[in-house]
Design a protein that fits this description.
- The chain is built from 11 helices and no strands.
- The protein has 222 residues and is mainly α.
- The C terminus is likely disordered.
- Bound molecules: iron/sulfur cluster.
Length: 222
């Protein structure tokens, strides 16, 4: 049975801080609801693609009520360069309607309430809570899921299980930044197609679990 490895945590975290830094520039926004929408738009898209559409989008929709009342086709026209834009436009409008009607125009600040909003899953909610309120949370996307398993920090079969395992393994001050650090690492070196261990700065600390597989065996949508 696969073991959880905890003895490499401090060395790996120190290396990740050194290579990828400890902070990441956030999305362009002026209000909390705009940050939430930006995070929703970033699912399965690059931050660069999202950054490119945000200024025009938020010049058109200044208040949450503006987007709640906008025709979906109009929202689509601002975000059509982003993947899954039709679905995201529909969810953006619905989400804003819910914020106006159920939360008095204020984005809720708990996981439980955020999960009631259209298009908001645990990943989006965790990122929002950490970016907007500094509330520590571990966002498990496809890169975090894969690399946490390869590093031996988790063996869960879905993102929620991995999130709970990582909460036990990682010091709380690393919960927020582990997400972008492992995304960068997952894109550059420990990719889903192949773990490039021969050029990985974590190589000496890593048990390289399941690197002969894709490591993407999650059973739930991320
Ligand atoms: S040593 Fe290999 S498996 Fe471990 S983090 Fe680096 S690339 Fe991934």
């Amino acid at each position: 049975m696969t073991q959880i490895h905890k003895n490499n945590v401090q060395e790996v975290l120190r290396k990740l801080d050194e290579i990828y830094g400890t902070t990441k520039e956030g999305f362009y926004h002026q209000q909390d609801w705009q940050l939430l929408i930006a995070i929703m738009l970033s699912a399965q898209s690059t931050d660069k693609q999202v950054d490119e559409v945000l200024p025009a989008l938020f010049q058109r929709y200044v208040d949450v009520g503006d987007m709640a009342e906008a025709p979906v086709e109009e929202i689509e026209s601002y975000i059509h360069s982003i993947g899954l834009y039709k679905n995201k436009a529909k969810n953006s409008k619905l989400c804003c309607q819910q914020i106006v009607e159920q939360y008095n125009g204020q984005v809720p600040d708990t996981m439980e309430k955020l999960l009631t909003l259209a298009g908001v899953g645990r990943k989006t909610a965790n990122l929002f809570l950490s970016d907007a309120h500094g509330i520590p949370g571990i966002t498990v996307d496809t890169h975090v899921f894969r690399i946490a398993r390869r590093l031996g920090w988790a063996k869960g079969k879905n993102p929620l299980q991995v999130e709970e395992e990582l909460q036990k393994v990682l010091p709380e001050e690393h919960w927020i930044r582990i997400n972008f650090q492992l995304i960068y690492h997952g894109r550059a070196i420990c990719t889903s197609r192949k773990a490039h261990c021969e050029k990985c700065p974590l190589e000496q600390f890593c048990p390289k679990i399941d690197t002969d597989k894709t490591g993407n065996g999650q059973t739930e949508k991320l």
